[in-house]
Design a protein that fits this description.
single chain; 539 residues; alpha/beta; nine-stranded parallel sheet; disordered N terminus
Length: 539
């Protein structure tokens, strides 16, 4: 047996996308603009995969998938592979209708109502089944496969295991898989503000993520260099190259189909250069009159009004439970003496919060106000760790999830401090998980091998792991691999897709199961290359 499964979860989504189109793109190796060579013989469709040479009486080996399955109880039969009469069996009016249609498209099979017969794949909800909303059981025997879970997300992940098993070994091995993720938040962060990515490219990444059982896409779409999603509340801030609302709806529909929550980020009070370009009166300036790049003057009520307008608008567009409010790198707080450099902010802080208040207290109040606002819109707020300050008279809201990315910021704080305060901390450790285009500021492109061998959710800062008791799933619910487009032209979309393929696969493995992986790195790489077209990418 492989190690014991743990639980995870995700909110229920609506059924809204043309699954057959999605499915065809997934197994067909749709690159969404990635480019790449034609598939090799190892990348053919499941229906043409060769039968295994394994003797029928020998115990089966576990399915070869990324991420690897937790528990496998082997059988001794021949396993299962699709045939001409294979059907995907599920209640056509039930919660798994979408999953059935998608799998049917991938296997070139028909969808049918129960009961199942020999050769079929049956999908079913089993209320109370262990493993949480994202757990599943995949049972293979008597020339049929049954995939069950307590919710549709788990059954969907079971179908990903089935498809990968066909790709990697030509069949689904005889036996029973019990599988569920260690961490409930498993994702990819994409900076589309500094670099415009096409909707097709983003959709290809969603398919790649789904096959890796990743469930969150963070979209950073507002920064100094651009504002990249159409706005009706403030169209004047939108960049020429942007994603329209219609394109965004298509992306969001696909994400929900694939059980992926998209997290919008409108960073403030820094990183607002695109907004300031349209509203120059919001610009923060020092005592000497020097503009602070991307920073708004948080004593100006109009700054809060515009930011809240945008937060309200996109809270109504993105259906997920989270909203990211940024809070990082506010230049007023990166000065050696914020009070002397920005005396107007210091005076406002003292006037509002008392004689001991500082600029950081005014910024913390801004953070808390934005968090309260998005909660009023039905969202749970997230913010970057360098927006949380200690020792002030105003304290950061305890309900904001901390997204820990760096220990290099001004007033740096160790991850343990946030955890000891009872805060939830999500891992975006820039030492391992930051793919920064052009490699500025001493960044280097991360490698999948280093992530695979060294990183876990407990490695929040640098390369040192905190104790597992301090960083369990309830305290560090997961992490995201991030692409930042600092030097936008340093790589094309195709190059980014190729560069992140193995790192993203390694992160998926370590978030599903932080323990020692069952495969060596060379074997993992070979498997990832073989499964490439399943993830919407042809190596």
């Amino acid at each position: 047996m492989i190690h014991v499964a743990r639980t995870g979860g995700r909110p229920r989504r609506s059924a809204v996308w043309a699954a057959a189109v999605v499915a065809t793109a997934v197994l067909g190796g749709c690159s969404g603009g990635d480019g790449g060579e034609r598939p090799s013989d190892d990348d053919r469709s499941p229906s043409s995969a060769p039968a295994s040479k394994e003797p029928q009486g020998a115990p089966s080996s576990a399915p070869r998938t990324i991420p690897s399955v937790h528990d496998f109880d082997p059988g001794t039969g021949p396993g299962w592979k699709p045939g001409d009469r294979t059907r995907i069996v599920a209640d056509p009016k039930g919660p798994l209708a979408d999953e059935a249609r998608m799998l049917a498209g991938e296997l070139k099979a028909e969808v049918a109502a129960p009961p199942a017969r020999a050769g079929d794949v049956e999908l079913a909800i089993r209320t109370g089944q262990r493993g949480g909303a994202e757990g599943y059981r995949l049972s293979t025997g008597d020339n049929r496969v049954t995939i069950t879970g307590s919710a549709d997300a788990g059954v969907f992940y079971g179908t990903r295991t089935l498809v990968q098993s066909l790709r990697s070994g030509g069949k689904v091995p005889e036996g029973v898989v019990d599988d569920s993720p260690d961490r409930p938040q498993r994702g990819f962060q994409l900076d589309i503000a500094r670099k415009h990515y096409t909707p097709d490219w983003i959709e290809a990444r969603l398919r790649q993520m789904a096959d890796l059982k990743l469930n969150q896409l963070g979209l950073h779409f507002s920064d100094d260099q651009g504002f990249r999603i159409e706005s009706t509340s403030h169209p004047e801030v939108v960049s020429k190259e942007h994603i329209t609302k219609a394109e965004l709806r298509r992306i969001l529909d696909l994400a929900e189909q694939l059980h992926i929550t998209v997290i919008p980020e409108i960073d403030s009070p820094g990183h607002l250069g695109a907004v300031i370009a349209a509203h120059p009166s919001l610009q923060l300036k020092s005592a000497s009159g020097t503009p602070a790049q991307g920073a708004v003057d948080i004593t100006n009520p109009q700054a809060a009004r515009i930011v809240d307008d945008l937060l309200r608008e996109y809270a109504g567009v993105f259906p997920g439970r989270y909203m990211h409010i940024g809070a990082d790198e506010y230049l007023a707080l990166m000065a050696s003496d914020p009070e002397a450099t920005y005396p107007q902010l210091a005076a406002a802080a003292r006037a509002k919060y008392g004689s001991k208040a500082r600029v950081q207290d005014l910024a913390t109040a801004w953070l808390n106000d934005r968090a309260s606002f998005v909660r009023g819109q039905g969202k749970r707020p997230k913010a970057w760790n360098d927006g949380f300050f200690s020792g002030g008279v105003v304290h950061p809201d305890k309900g904001i999830e901390v997204e820990y990315w760096t220990g290099k910021e001004s007033g740096e704080r160790q991850p343990a401090e946030y955890l000891s305060e009872g805060r939830t901390v999500v891992n975006l450790n820039d030492e391992y998980l930051y793919y920064v285009l052009g490699e500025p500021n001493q960044f280097t492109y991360p490698t999948g091998e280093r992530i695979y061998k060294e990183w876990t959710p407990s490695v929040l800062r640098g390369n040192t792991a905190l104790s597992s008791s301090a960083t369990g799933p309830g305290k560090v619910p997961g992490g995201r691999f991030a692409v930042w487009s600092d030097i936008a032209d340093a790589q094309t979309q195709d190059q980014v897709a190729k560069g992140i393929r193995l790192p993203l696969a390694a992160v998926a493995q370590k978030l599903w199961d932080p323990g020692r992986p069952p495969l060596s790195w060379p074997d993992f790489t070979a498997l990832a290359n073989k499964l490439g077209p399943v993830a919407g990418f042809t190596p």
